[in-house]
Amino acid sequence: MARKSKPPGISRRDLIAKGGAAGVGAAALSGAGVEDAAAAQAGVPRWDRTADIVVVGSGAAGLPAAVRARDLGASVIVVEENTDVGGHAIISNAITNLGGGNAMQKKYGIQDTADDVYMEYTRPDHPMTRYNDRAVVRSFADHNVEVYDYMVSKGVMFRDGRPANAQGEGSTTPRRIAMNLYSSDFAETINGTAGSGLIRPLEKAARDGGVQILLETRMVRIVREQPTSGRVVGIVCTDLKTNKTINIRARRAVIACTGGSASNPVVRTIYDSRLTEEYQVGCEPYSRQSGDAEQQGMAIGASLGSTNAQANEMYLAQQKTAFIGCRYGYARWDPRSPYFSRAGASGIAVADYQDAILVNTVGNRFYDETVGMRLGAGSDGGWTPMYHYFAAAMASAVKVIDGRKQRVGGPIWAIFDEDAVAREEWKVEPPFVDVANGYFFSGATLAELARNLNRNAWMKHPMEPAALEATVARYNSFVDAGKDADFGKPAPKYKIQKPRFYAAWATPILHDTYAGLRVDGRWNVIDVFGKPIPGFYCAGESASGITQHGVARCMVGGYVAATDALRGRA
Ligand SMILES: Cc1cc2nc3c(=O)[nH]c(=O)nc-3n(C[C@H](O)[C@H](O)[C@H](O)COP(=O)(O)OP(=O)(O)OC[C@H]3O[C@@H](n4cnc5c(N)ncnc54)[C@H](O)[C@@H]3O)c2cc1C
Fold first, then answer.
1. Whole-prediction pTM value?
2. From ligand 1's centre to the CA of 542, what distance in Å?
3. Rounded to whole angstroms, how far apart are CA atoms 89 and 358?
4. DSSP 519
5. Whose CA is nearest to atom 39 of ligand 1?
6. In the chain, pLDDT over 90 holds for what percent of residues?
């Protein structure tokens, strides 16, 4: 297997060892130091490297784009800012919504066609599908079977089993196919997750084919012939090991696959102004949804598209964090992961929210704690209570600042006592909870607990100890009364009364990006005047058009973008 999460960087050996096919390594080296008209015109002093196709990001969209482009005979450079490939995709479970009548569906007697995929992902009666871009969905639907077959041919490890359905996002035909774990080695799987069965085979196909993967290399600018007109001719990167600039020329196209914008407060607040900097993102701290394609794309005149798909807040856009007491609690970080030190702790799961109350940054309860995890999940949609839960979590706190009331967001804390720890059988110590980085606190009294949790870096609006004491006293009176007079939590069961008292980080976590750069059915980026930008494609969560969770739309987008860039009209 190719490189794993070993020390960062790209060596000359990496550059040329696998580059024999079609002289890819040579093509890259001959680009070094080349001056050309496009570079001069675009204000880039020189091109340090050159390839036909330059892909930004090595996740669920980037690797399929790179492998497909290489198969079509192009020289390919992938830049990836992380120390290993895979992005969110390698951390994911990679349960894949590809259908259209693929071989797995046929094996289990499931009827499906491209038209069925199209019709379900453009349903007018479901909030996740009604805003989808019809041209993008049409192309997605038409390429489902082709991409499934292509992935199988590249060794992607689809698990044999009857596909399940994905009702939460409007699609009803069984299409969800799981993947197998790549290996038992955490250096290869990163967090012991089946996304490795998608990413490692694609990485191998890419490297074996001669794709150059430059790790720890961040795209910081997209270069167009003129600031907002003409072709996209390359990218400017920062080598994160040396802090040096690398200018990479793209003869045919740049395909930006930077994974969405949930980690970027500037971009995410375009869609929803409440998503200020305190909110964390699922899959961090392994990789960011950097929003770099969106920001740098907009800087050269690209348009955003389908923005209401994000503002819709559906399904996995944001959710109650699954593991509390740590910052990154979307999924459980395993202490055996080589990236565990970045994560800080695994977190603890709440079996029954009768065992805790949730308070906002000023120490007030704000909603019935027992509502479910996420928007739009489950057979009934579960949409309304979660929608209101998030609204309250993000805006119920009010501070008086300079004599004027201000509505603020801020952290959400789960507050509980020693009896709750016993009932839930929690281990309130590292590596389960993150004491060192300030995401889990305790106190002999509630007042001491409030003073302690104010040390958390995101507590910009300190909690008054008296406020927390009053909140708990009121909640305890609801337990006596058997009724929550404030938020209707079903028959509150347990008082919070036995020291020690605890506060665990339980702030909503952001996850999927459902809007991004506007693309057409070829994943060619559209500018603010509605015209395709020559040589610029975007795929994966950074592209708009189809509100579908996960890797399927990413794989299809990357594959189609590469095909179109090299052959035209994919
Ligand atoms: C815990 C978890 C479980 C999931 N489970 C599933 C599941 O079961 N099924 C499913 O379909 N989906 C699942 N997903 C979602 C899925 O992983 C994502 O939808 C998918 O990976 C998005 O693909 P992408 O290519 O857009 O982004 P990514 O896969 O995240 O790849 C983007 C890459 O771009 C890199 N990058 C960003 N900015 C730059 C820059 N400026 N320069 C260079 N590189 C950059 C990032 O480091 C990253 O490697 C899950 C996600 C998580 C976190």
1. 0.93
2. 10
3. 31
4. B
5. 258
6. 83
